[in-house]
Amino acid sequence: MALAAPALRRYLLLLAQEHLEFRLPEITSLLSLCGGQFSGEQEIRVNSPFWILNIPSEDMARGLMKRTVCAKSIFELWGHGRSAGELYASLKNYPADKMLPYLQSDSTYKIRIHTFNKTLTQAQKIKKIDALEFLPFKGKVNLKTPEHIFWILEDYGMNPNDVPEEPIHLYFGRWIADGQRELIESYSVKKRHFIGNTSMDACLSFIMANHARVKPNDIVYDPFVGTGGLLISSAHFGAYVCGTDIDYNTIHGLGKASRKNQKWRGPDENIRANLRQYGLEKYYLDALVADSSRPIWRKGMLFDAIITDPPYGIREAPRRMGSQKETVKSVERSTENHFFVSSSYHLSDIFFDLLKFGAEHLVMGGRLVYWLPIYRPEYTEEIIPRHPCLKLVSNCEQMLSSHTSRRLITMEKVKEFKDQDENSYLLDGQYLPYRGHNSFREKYFSGVTKRIAKEEKDNQK
């Protein structure tokens, strides 16, 4: 006889108002990591800071908040309405057996108010709190160290230029837990020993690790590791991390520094020192000087997640290794010369090598998370690289300029890799649309040049 599924309870999620497109994939991924799933019937207004979620248990809600950087807090939802009257009616209908354990005479509590898109005076807040006197609170108020914290949350809409007199949504609930927003500050790139011109923002780095569902004891790999910023977020969540990069100096922390008023990198400016700075060195496997376009790993499923930010070719064209006999036509056939020189590496080839590598080396259910640069006037979903072994999970946009953006692509391995899958993308005619990625650098600077010319023309008026 099958066991009945646990009854879902309603929770209110308070979200940060940044990286809006990334929030739903992060919450969905973390719920699945905690053993739950996101219901299509959830009351979600995607751009709103208030989401009502159905979650099986408070433990799962707490597990979600131990990981998310997109959400601020979660509450057990006791009441919800579009007016004060609707909220009070909703609270009166909330089951007493779920409410009373937190209202006992030997407990302490306080009530707080959060408003979105409007500021209330202290007198207004007190009036709203006093209106809840019908609730059977028996404990004592303790404003400093209460056992239970209850919140009134009011939503005044998304338009700061048209704020209604009364809220459009009102909520009341018991506070459960806060998210991990403090990680954004504590792991800020500004405080990090080793950085480069393209070091990933801490918030986005943690979002990528969450999209990848990184968990303790996973092995996470970054084939374009650079200064190792993406390894740090995965190591924070208990994963063992490694990477490769073609740049010898970056891997070894040598050469010129990226910081202002600093000529050369110091002894603590390397990937290992970055992880040591946060007490994460034990999770660092190593980083290799290697070319991601060439096979260096044994065949088989090695990694639980691949998280990376491939080079877009904006500062310089992407490069890969090639022997002299590949580039110098006059070399005699019999000459054996394995001195490696760099050759061009087209963006389309970078992404297909990356997907092929992920399809072969990810464990089943493992995820590939990477950034794809986009020229927005030409964007369609057809230009997202695909592979028969990988399912597209999410596709989120971050604007770079009026005409360019980058999209965070999350894919999951759903099919075992076979030799015939290696070059399958060449067989179905889908390869041609992706060639447009190769001219991203030219299109990027074309847009910059046009913008500068327009600004100069406007200044002459």
Automatic annotation (TrEMBL):
Transmembrane segments: none
UniProt cross-references to PANTHER family, sorted A to Z: RNA METHYLASE-RELATED, TRNA (GUANINE(10)-N2)-METHYLTRANSFERASE HOMOLOG
Limits of the Ribosomal RNA large subunit methyltransferase K/L-like methyltransferase domain: 191-317
Entry protein name: tRNA (guanine(10)-N(2))-methyltransferase TRMT11
GO molecular function, one term: tRNA (guanine(10)-N2)-methyltransferase activity
Family (UniProt): Belongs to the class I-like SAM-binding methyltransferase superfamily. TRM11 methyltransferase family.
GO annotation terms (biological process): methylation; tRNA processing
UniProt xrefs under Pfam families: Tmrp11_N, UPF0020
Oligomer status and interactors: Part of the heterodimeric TRMT11-TRM112 methyltransferase complex; this complex forms an active tRNA methyltransferase, where TRMT112 acts as an activator of the catalytic subunit TRMT11.
InterPro entries: DNA_methylase_N6_adenine_CS, RlmKL-like_Mtase, SAM-dependent_MTases_sf, TRMT11, TRMT11_N
Annotated function: Catalytic subunit of the TRMT11-TRM112 methyltransferase complex, that specifically mediates the S-adenosyl-L-methionine-dependent N(2)-methylation of guanosine nucleotide at position 10 (m2G10) in tRNAs. This is one of the major tRNA (guanine-N(2))-methyltransferases.
Catalytic reaction equation(s): guanosine(10) in tRNA + S-adenosyl-L-methionine = N(2)-methylguanosine(10) in tRNA + S-adenosyl-L-homocysteine + H(+)
Subcellular location: Cytoplasm
Predominant cellular place of this UniProt entry's protein: cytoplasm
Source organism per UniProt: Sinosuthora webbiana
Every tRNA (guanine(10)-N(2))-methyltransferase TRMT11 N-terminal domain range: 10-181
EC number assigned by the record: 2.1.1.214
Family matches, as PROSITE patterns: N6_MTASE, SAM_MT_TRM11
Highest taxon in the source lineage: Eukaryota
Record GO cellular component, one term: tRNA methyltransferase complex
Annotated keywords: Cytoplasm, Methyltransferase, RNA-binding, S-adenosyl-L-methionine, Transferase, tRNA processing, tRNA-binding
